[in-house]
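Q: I'm building a small set of examples for a reading group on sequence design. Run inverse folding on the following structure and report the sequence directly after it, with nothing in between.
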């Protein structure tokens, strides 16, 4: 259940792993220390403050070990079952120093170690050291959120009251409109924060059609190196036409804040258009890769939308610092956001939108292990019409973060989740790491030759910055 192809390592100077371990991770820990420090200061409870200081000391120790290339030490028993798995793997690896260790495992281990520091306390057990960052980035995406909320209300209301879209008259026109919107929303979902919202200008049926040729859409589409969204849409409509009454779409979530917001936009649209009857969201169970969604992040997002005026006009710490007072929302903006709140809380309450955490998502290994280590979850995913894996880390886990030739077929690189698995996998991924598969012959070389692409340095630098993306489907058939 592991590929033979070697994995990327923090010891390889041509890999983004090298820079990550030496430059990015210490910064991430430092930001965590600052956060805990702030909360410790703000606390009036003696025991909380005492433990907070101890947490800071432990985080500083971890940072020291990382920066001084010490061994990765066993994770202390914090009462959770996954510790044994992590430690077993660590032992099997033998000599594991921070600066020459498989990237995927060591980065997961880093977040699990951080989590164990909190789990061993009394007062900080469920504390999320990244929560502040997550909410503040969501707040700062206000213009995009407002724009999308207005479009969403428009589209979902049309579907609910007129049972059609943008004035489409025939079934074919309706399907065309549905497909274009599906692709738009999935691409917005893909680009997350870096979204050009002119993508979703969809007023009349004619406008919608023109959109396919629109400048904005083309501009970002040319950076999607492989795009299987049309095939994904076909899979959903085929299921719909087969008359199946229960049709599930799963989203293995990535980041909280704006990205979760756009995931919910896609989820709500799939339900409203009848392209799915249930959406299952898979969040993480511990603070993970800084911004990944925890169940609490979902709750907080919904709460923010329940009273958007308060959410957007309460001064954040940064606002206070800069002496800024956020402008109030207009009545229409409040109404648009409340529409989202009502729709999303309703589908959640009615069981059409479900959150299903599993510690598998925060294990140290790749998704190649799924059938073996979490057979229940594997069986569960087979029930789904489409399992959407969001973001870079999920892609690395799908492909085992191995140094595949870029032309390796996607279904092959995802191993047991590929051919014959019965799982319909759709990866929506902006590239922020070395691994890339499923490219046409010559494409990797072509992009390497572009500015900042890495040239003949031996590094695939183009895939590090999030500027490029891949959208890849594996239908799980034999
Ligand atoms: O490449 C930088 C990085 O932190 C990776 O370590 C990780 O895979 C990824 O970014 C996280 O990004 P995302 O939130 O898209 O998974
Ligand atoms: Mg993430």
């Amino acid at each position: 259940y592991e590929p033979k192809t070697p994995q990327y390592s923090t010891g390889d100077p041509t890999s983004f792993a090298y820079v990550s371990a030496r430059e990015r991770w210490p910064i991430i820990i430092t930001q965590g220390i600052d956060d805990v420090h702030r909360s410790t200061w703000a606390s009036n409870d003696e025991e909380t403050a005492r433990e907070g200081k101890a947490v800071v000391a432990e985080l500083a120790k971890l940072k020291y070990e990382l920066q001084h290339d010490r061994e990765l030490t066993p994770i202390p028993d914090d009462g959770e079952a996954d510790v044994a798995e992590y430690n077993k793997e660590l032992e099997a690896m033998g000599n594991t120093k921070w600066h020459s260790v498989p990237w995927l495992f060591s980065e997961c281990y880093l977040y699990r170690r951080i989590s164990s520091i909190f789990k061993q306390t009394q007062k900080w057990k469920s504390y999320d050291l990244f929560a502040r960052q997550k909410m503040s980035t969501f707040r700062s995406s206000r213009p995009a959120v407002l724009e999308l909320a207005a479009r969403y209300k428009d589209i979902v209301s049309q579907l609910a009251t007129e049972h059609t879209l943008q004035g489409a008259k025939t079934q074919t026109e309706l399907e065309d409109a549905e497909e274009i919107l599906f692709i738009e929303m999935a691409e917005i979902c893909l680009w997350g924060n870096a979204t050009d919202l002119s993508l979703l200008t969809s007023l009349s049926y004619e406008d919608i059609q023109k959109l396919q040729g629109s400048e904005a859409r083309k501009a970002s589409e040319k950076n999607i190196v492989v795009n299987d969204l049309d095939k994904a849409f076909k899979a959903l409509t085929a299921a719909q036409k087969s008359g199946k009454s229960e049709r599930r779409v799963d989203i293995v979530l990535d980041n909280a804040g704006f990205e979760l917001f756009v995931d919910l936009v896609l989820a709500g649209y799939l339900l409203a258009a009848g392209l799915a009857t249930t959406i299952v969201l898979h969040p993480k169970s511990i603070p993970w890769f800084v911004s990944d969604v925890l169940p609490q992040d979902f709750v907080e997002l919904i709460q923010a939308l329940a009273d958007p005026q308060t959410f957007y006009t309460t001064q954040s710490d940064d606002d206070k610092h800069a002496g800024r007072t956020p402008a109030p929302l207009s009545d229409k903006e409040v109404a648009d956001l409340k529409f989202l709140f009502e729709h999303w809380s309703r589908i959640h309450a009615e069981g059409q939108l479900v959150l299903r955490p599993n510690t598998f998502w925060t294990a140290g290994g790749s998704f190649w292990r799924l059938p073996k280590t979490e057979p229940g979850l594997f069986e569960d995913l087979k029930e789904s019409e489409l399992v959407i894996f969001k973001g870079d880390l999920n892609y690395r886990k799908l492909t085992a973060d191995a140094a595949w030739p870029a032309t390796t077929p996607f279904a092959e690189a995802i191993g047991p989740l590929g051919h014959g698995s019965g799982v319909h996998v759709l990866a929506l991924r902006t590239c922020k790491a070395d691994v890339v598969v499923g490219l046409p012959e010559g494409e990797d070389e072509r992009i390497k030759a572009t500015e900042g692409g890495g040239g003949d340095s031996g590094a695939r630098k183009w895939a590090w910055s999030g500027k490029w993306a891949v959208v890849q489907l594996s239908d799980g058939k034999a």
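The first helix runs from residue 16 to 42.
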